[in-house]
Structures are given as structure tokens and as C-alpha cells.
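To: structure desk
From: M.T.
Subject: fold request, one chain
Message: Could you run this one when you get a chance? Sequence is below, nothing fancy, just the single chain.
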Amino acid sequence: MESQFPASRPSLAELFGAFFRLGLTAFGGPSMVAYIRKLSVEQKHWLDRETFNHGVALCQAIPGATAIQTTAFVGLIAGGVPGAAACFIGFGLPAFLIMVAFAAVYTYTSNLPAIVAAFSGLQAIIVAIVANAAISFGKTSLTSWKRLLIAGVAALLFALNLNPALIILLAALGGFLLLSAEPPAGGKPLAPFPVQPTGRAVIGILLAAALGFGLLFVFQRDRFELAALFFRIDLLAFGGGFSSLPLMYREVVDVRGWMDSATFLNGIALGQVTPGPIVITATFVGYILHGLWGAILATIGIFLPSFTLVVGITPYFNRLRSFASFNKVIAGVLCSFVGLLVAVTLRFAGDVHWSVVHLLLASAALLALLRKVDILWVVLAGIAISVILIR
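Reply: Done. C-alpha cells follow.
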């Protein structure tokens, strides 16, 4: 088994830079977990595969967008709480900046369909990205027919839009009842995560958040309502970022009437062609309502609970790794994650208006990814081809 400790502790700048670069190509929502694993386990050796898989299971089991939470987990192991912040912010910053730019353009022009059309080929490439992630995780996680069964049932339930929290619970129960505890690679018992207690950091984050919310409540009530709403939505987003969209739509459009349905759906469309979690739609909503400060507050609101939960829960989660029954539960949750990737692949494929060009783009992108071509070059080439060939 690879060492859980990096050969040399990475600097905050190195962590931020690595995940900022990855964040530039973070298309496909939860599929990015496979690329985070490639970066942090295979290339940088910041943690080993078993530790990474446990982190993914943790992030899958708590509310929030799984991919960006996984970056926080990696950063926490590699560099403590500051490392978690560096990875989390680095990964999410490109999505924030690009969405702010899109939202600013949107407020001055109604030509959004042209923007989305220019990037329609990218949607086909996103299907390939997610499919490759499903293949990659499936190879390592579905090592028996029982695991394949759990993943298949989870994929079906995700496709039927069953409550994600219930699906994860059922997968955990399936893992506990059906799976046998497998020894880690090398046959050695799993060592604890090399992470220090985070209680003080969590208390500091919560106190700072409470102070910020209090000041907004007193001086800018409308912005307080915006930030508080997205904070609550993230706390209920079991099953990843996609589960938050119906909640977001209901609260923003139906309950509060802050914008009409067409505008909100345009925000989701921009979120699809923007790297990063689909919940970056919150940035669009915040910008349309209150400009740049609204975008910042909505973004903080939709991501702060996710970050705090990972930092706060990991040390306690750490203590359970030595129990065989707990590891069976974790294996079941990981199988449900593969099922989620399959369901997301099908969902994304259903949203693409397929043509010969789209089929060729998706096929070429999947082949390139399977041959280990850097995702950055796949995405850049796909965007260039889309802009030239698709109208």
C-alpha cells in the first residue's frame, strides 16, 4: 500500500495551483472525482487510494457537491485546514469567475442561445467526461457481482429521481448486508488519516459566518435573505449538486419570485457549460439580483456548509475505519457513487441535441480520455471544434 503521507508536504500555493488548473476543466459534476483521484493519488501521491476512496464515500454521504468536497478532503489530508481551503477555493474559483462573466454578459444581451449553441459541442464532450469517470471508478469499485448489483440498483433509482439521501442509505445497507470486508491493498490494516483535530477551525468558521450573517441581517436584509437561503439549500443537498437544483428553483422562482422560470433555466444552462459544480447557478442568481456582491454572497452561501462539514466530520469519520462493518457500509456507498455517475451520464446524454458532429466529438473525447490524454487539452480542443463546426 502506498504511504498515506506525501513524500514532502505540499505548499498552499502548490495545492491551490494544482486544483485551480483542474477547476478550469471541471465539467461533468461528480465525474471530476475521478480526475481529482488521478491528480492527488496517481500523480502527486498526496494520499493513497484507500484513503481517497474513504474520503469520496464521506463526501457522497453528506450534503453538498461531491467533487468540490473531495478537493477539501484531499487538502485537509495534505495540508490541514489551510490546505483544505486552498484546494476548495482553487477548484471553485474558475467556475465563479466564468459564471460572473456570463451573468454580466447576460444582463446586457439577450443573445444567450448563441452562447449556449457555440458550446453545444462541449455538452457532448461532457457526456464523454462523465462516462470515462464512470468507467474509471467502476473498474476499481465494482470488483464483484454484488457490488455491481448495488451500483445498478442505485443507478436505476437515481434515474427515477428517488430521494438521493434514501438511495445512499439503501446502498449503505446493501453494503452492510451483502458485501464482505476486503483487506486493503498489501494486506496491512488501514492507518488513520494523517489529520489533526479540526474543532477549533470549525468553531472559528461558524463564528465568522454568524458574524457575517448578523451584519447582513442588520444592514442589508435582502442580501442576508439571499445568502441564508443558499446556505440552507446546501445543507439539504444530499446526493450532490443536482439535488439542490429543484430546491433552488422552488425557493427562487416559486416561493420568492426573485426571477422568472426562463431566466432561472438560462442560469442552469450556463451552469452546464461552466466548469465546476452545477450549484454555481447560485452565482448567476446572486449576480442577477444584486450584482457582484450578490454573486459573492450566494456563492459563499452555497459552498460554506459543504466545506465546513468535510473539515468538521473527517476526524470523527477517521476513527471508524478500523471496523470491518463500517468498511462494508463505505463500499456500498462507493457503489452508489458509480451508480450516480451512470445516471448522470444518461441524463447529460439526454440533454444533447445529437448530430454526426456531436457523436464524433463525444467518441473522440472518450477515446482520448481512455488513452490518458490530459482533460485540459480534450476540453480546449472540443471547444475550438464546437465553435468552428456547430452553429
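Reply (cont.): Residues 66-108 form the longest helix (43 residues). Let me know if you need anything else for the meeting.
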